[in-house]
Specification:
The protein has helices at 4-16, 169-174, 186-190, 321-324, 468-472, and strands at residues 65-78, 84-90, 98-102, 106-113, 121-124, 145-150, 157-163, 178-184, 199-207, 227-230, 233-234, 237-241, 244-251, 258-262, 268-273, 276-284, 287-289, 294-300, 309-314, 326-334, 357-365, 375-377, 389-391, 396-403, 410-414, 420-424, 427-428, 439-442, 447-453, 459-464, 476-481. It has 482 residues and is mostly beta strands. It folds into three domains: 29-45 and 193-334, Cupredoxins -  blue copper proteins (Immunoglobulin-like, Sandwich); 65-190, Cupredoxins -  blue copper proteins (Immunoglobulin-like); 357-481, Immunoglobulin-like. The strands form six sheets. It has a seven-stranded mixed beta sheet with strand order 11-10-9-13-18-15-16, with no helix packed on it. A six-stranded mixed beta sheet has the order 22-21-24-29-26-27. Strands 12-20-19-14-17 form a five-stranded mixed beta sheet.
Length: 482
């Protein structure tokens, strides 16, 4: 049985063997050095079709707002062919559904909790008031409902929503409580980007199954979760036409980092990140995503003849190439007209206001092999009654955030705001981190410097590591805007 002690001890032992490095998490292991972790037999790669998550329909569009009703419930769904797996879901969908919203138009969602545990719903990346933020202690119980209102007074961005009930958030999200929230604005809709059936949300994550095909949740189980799911299916295939596609990638894993590439080394065009479109697109052969990060990517399949099959690969462990190295396969099955294009300029970002305050934040976790390692923010476990940072409304600040660990990676997510990255390890950030973000990766020993402006809502919010197992272990803190 995997425990938090055995996982952490294994990580420390692996570090001595060169399997963990400060430069990049865990390389893929060789098949000979790995141990099997899945008790169930997964289907052969690329034998299951990848579905596209359904789009939620509002129950009302009156009064200048779109109103939705969603029920959180346990259901059994087929992930592994022929096996019904119990899941926690929004309206019975795994992965969660897609909600499409528009900047400037309010969305109201009434969530009914038909589960057996309290929950909260956090719109990750959303600029919302404290009572609509879905904070860790702001839960509602079984058999009750809660209404959240999202004004959408922010530029278009690929947001997502998930459970945030403290000490339960990591297991609830692992078992399925997450969904996609695509917010568009007039500028984005005016661009000739791929749209309609050629704009595809893809939620990536890992999982662990027992011999009956049921999800196995163990806290901090980074080495045990070696089944890779794309839109809820293990290593699926997806049929495409020989034209451009826009993929809205979300890493909805609790702990797994992805480094994605096409198997032929082909180029991708990244056009956006967490906080929406970049100012300019850039061409790349790899896309990195820590948990909760998003990437907006265009792939042009017109360079391939019909019949070509291209694998989207992952080059990061833990796990072997056979376990975690293949994410999904694109099968080019037909030709199609393609009026879309990627403009040279996507949008103009506003100038950053002058920062008047600087803060230093340190993320850490016990690495000494103790039975119950703690997740710490500035040396303290989260206390919901303690205010860790007090911020004057309307000001801009620079936060310097460091991962103090030598082995364990983290990332950093701040509620309420989208921030701009200024530096990584003292150097300017690359193009993938040049746009607005709400989550940023921090490999061991890394430091980032970010700029945030707090000019919308007043109240108390949290910032935390979005490796959700870590935040559930206490790596979280409060800030109050007043």
């Amino acid at each position: 049985m995997v425990t938090r002690r055995s996982v952490l001890g294994g990580a420390i032992g692996a570090a001595g063997a060169g399997l963990l490095t400060t430069g990049g998490l865990v390389p893929l292991l060789s098949a000979q050095s790995a141990q099997a972790t899945e008790a169930v037999t997964l289907p052969a790669p690329f034998t299951v079709r990848m579905p596209v998550p359904p789009v939620l329909s509002p129950i009302s569009v009156l009064g200048g707002q779109d109103t939705y009703a969603v029920t959180m419930k346990e259901v059994a769904r087929e992930i592994i062919p022929g096996v019904q797996t119990k899941l926690l879901t929004y309206d019975g969908h795994f992965p969660g559904p897609v909600l499409r919203a528009r900047s400037g138009r309010k969305v109201v969602i009434r969530h009914r909790n038909s589960l057996t545990m309290p929950v909260s719903v956090h719109l990750h990346g959303g600029n919302v008031s404290p009572e609509n933020d879905g904070g860790p202690m702001d839960t509602f119980g079984p058999g009750t409902s809660r209404t959240y209102a999202y004004p959408n007074q922010q530029p278009g961005a690929a947001l997502w929503f998930h459970d945030h009930a403290h000490h339960m958030e990591s297991e609830h999200v692992f078992r399925g409580l997450s969904g996609t929230y695509l917010l568009s604005d007039e500028n984005e809709r005016s661009l000739p980007l791929p749209a309609g059936q050629y704009e595809v949300p893809i939620a990536l994550r890992d999982a662990r199954f027992d011999d009956a095909g049921q999800l196995v949740y163990v806290m901090d189980d980074v080495f045990g979760r070696t089944a890779i799911l794309a839109n809820g299916r293990p290593t699926p295939y997806f049929e495409v036409a020989a034209r451009k596609y826009r993929f809205r990638l979300l890493n909805s894993s609790n702990m797994r980092f992805f480094q994605l590439r096409l198997s032929d080394g082909g180029q991708m065009i990244q056009i956006g990140t967490d906080g929406g479109l970049l100012e300019r697109p850039f061409t790349t052969d790899t896309v990195g995503l820590s948990p909760a990060e998003r990437a907006d990517v265009v792939i042009d399949f017109s360079r391939y003849p019909v019949g070509t099959k291209i694998v989207l690969e992952n080059t990061l462990g833990p796990g072997t190439p056979d376990q975690v190295g293949k994410v999904l396969r694109f099968d080019v099955v037909r030709t199609a007209a393609d009026p879309s294009r990627v403009p040279d300029v996507l949008r103009t970002l506003p100038a950053m206001a002058k920062a008047t305050v600087q803060r230093t934040i340190v993320l850490s976790m016990d690495e000494d092999g103790r039975e119950e390692p703690r997740g710490l923010m500035d040396g303290q476990e989260w206390d919901y009654q303690r205010i860790d940072q007090t911020i004057a409304h309307g000001t801009s600040e620079i936060w310097t955030v460091t991962n103090a660990n030598k082995i364990i990676p983290h990332n950093f997510h701040m509620h309420l705001v989208q921030f701009r990255l200024l530096e990584r390890n003292g150097a300017p950030v690359g193009p993938a981190e040049a746009g607005p973000k709400d989550t940023v990766r921090l490999f061991p020993g890394e430091t980032v410097k970010l700029h945030a402006t707090f000019d919308s809502y007043k109240g108390t919010y949290v910032y935390h590591c979005h490796l959700l197992d870590h935040s559930a272990m206490g790596m979280m803190a409060n800030f109050r805007v007043r």
